[in-house]
Design brief:
By secondary structure, the protein is an alpha+beta fold. The protein contains 6 helices and 6 strands.
């Protein structure tokens, strides 16, 4: 996990702060709808349906994880690619986000199937339906290897419907 402090739960934030956590991101619907343009910027959008844990990823997420674009990726496979400390922090924040309907941001380390490592910023927010959390969605951004402490996202694109 990157970094070890503050503790993982301190990366949680209320849903009304979603736009603030994406403040440095330019909202451009044309690029946000273009998977290749997002991937070129090291970004991918993702969605996890909580009823069956099915994942939907754009090309950029497949690129970050080193997986074949368009392939069906079971959640256990994607979770297994997180480094141990990163996986623990992510699962803890994920459970908290679902239970308390909060978003979170976490920088993590990924071990791709080919054995190479990469760092990724994970931004997640719950999707609510009739007051219940039914899904999580957000952005995954590739981070250069030399990134240590959290930094704000580079100006790029993200669309909030």
């Amino acid at each position: 996990m990157r970094p070890t402090e503050p503790l993982p739960l301190h990366h949680s934030w209320p849903l009304y702060d979603l736009r603030e956590h994406l403040a440095s991101v330019v909202l451009d619907q044309d690029i946000a709808g273009n998977e290749a343009a997002l991937a070129d910027r090291g970004l991918g959008l993702w969605h996890c349906n909580l009823t069956d844990n099915s994942l939907s990823w754009t090309q950029g997420v497949y690129d970050i994880f080193g997986l074949e674009p368009g392939s069906i990726v079971p959640r256990p496979l994607s979770v297994s690619l997180y480094a141990h400390d990163s996986r623990e922090a992510m699962e803890r924040l994920r459970a908290y986000a679902i239970r308390h309907q909060r978003g979170f941001t976490l920088d993590v380390d990924i071990r791709r199937p080919d054995g190479s490592d990469c760092a990724m910023r994970l931004i997640a927010a719950p999707v609510l339906l009739d007051g219940e959390t039914v899904a999580l969605h957000g952005v995954k951004q590739w981070l250069p290897k030399d990134v240590g402490a959290p930094v704000r996202l580079e100006p790029t694109t993200f669309f909030i419907p």
